[in-house]
Design goal:
about 280 residues, Helicase, Ruva Protein, domain 3, 7-stranded mixed β-sheet, about 20% strand
Length: about 280
């Protein structure tokens, strides 16, 4: 029988011997999101873990020692205040991507009906969040990974939007998919790391997150070019991208032949994180 405060202290000593750069935060993440204790439970520290909880925690701690991202170990993370299950075939949703979703919600909150395509959907965090906060939207998501498509479908079901979300396996580099309606919005957080830079990423990323969701070609811009070239949109439709650091200006240049009113939006660190524009008439 072990109390939370005792296990927390022991686990911290274990993780401090690894390359983990946020050991206490990761330990608390397990208590909160895997074992479902409250923050008050963590502060007081007196609750006792039963044998099943202790075994689950011990197994999870072993995974953290290996360097596995805590979101995979705990089985998911929050995005737009919603809980998304993750799998090793999906990227971990990041807070920076919320900037893209919030922008589209604000821009299109009064438009109905609304058809949206999310390219490279992963967990479905973009597609599902848009469906959740835009109740008149019909959302489609595509991904090259069948495992990612399954994860997105499961997340949509849990979050109650599966009736307005459709997901399918598709490689966007082979062309634009045939869809049952014209899209008002096409949105994507595509792979944008230059191929040669993938191996220089943080070990938690390069060793455990899917390379197919990271590597974007020699200069990291293959998907922006292909999507912009092939995208099919309704009149005055919107194409919106998340972009990497120092990529916004180049992506704007890629879009200028087919799109007007091209704009950027900064993330909380002041980086131009979103580029979007309106299809030329």
């Amino acid at each position: 029988m072990v109390k939370i405060k005792e296990l927390r202290k022991t686990a911290l000593k274990v993780l401090e011997q690894t390359k983990n750069d946020s050991p206490l935060a990761d330990i608390d993440y397990l208590f909160l999101h895997m074992l479902h204790f409250s923050r008050e439970d963590l502060i007081l520290g007196d609750k006792i873990l039963d044998n099943q909880q202790l075994q689950l925690f011990d197994n999870a701690l072993t995974e953290l020692q290996r360097g596995v991202p805590v979101q995979y170990v705990a089985g998911g993370c929050e995005f737009m205040s919603l809980w998304f299950a993750t799998s090793k075939s999906t990227l971990v949703p990041r807070a920076d991507t919320e900037i893209l979703v919030e922008l589209l919600i604000e821009k299109f909150k009064n438009k109905s009906p609304l058809n949206i395509l999310d390219i490279g959907t992963g967990t479905g965090c973009i597609a599902i969040s848009l469906a959740y906060f835009l109740p008149d939207a019909k959302v489609f998501g595509i991904d090259i990974s069948p495992e990612a498509v399954k994860t997105a479908k499961d997340n949509a079901k849990v979050l109650g939007v599966s009736d307005r979300c459709s997901f399918l396996e598709w490689n966007i580099l082979k062309g634009f998919p045939t869809l049952p309606a014209e899209m008002d919005i096409v949105v994507s957080n595509p792979p944008y790391i230059p191929d040669a830079d993938v191996l220089t990423l943080d070990e938690k990323v390069k060793d455990f997150e899917p390379v197919s969701a990271l590597a974007g070609g020699t200069d990291g811009l293959d998907f922006y070019r292909k999507i912009t070239e092939d995208v099919k949109l309704a009149k005055n439709g919107c194409l919106a991208f998340e972009v990497g650091i120092n990529q916004a200006e180049t992506v704007m240049s890629i879009m200028k032949n087919r799109f007007s009113e091209i704009k950027t939006e900064k993330d909380l660190s002041g980086v131009d994180r979103v580029v979007w524009g309106t299809l030329k008439g």
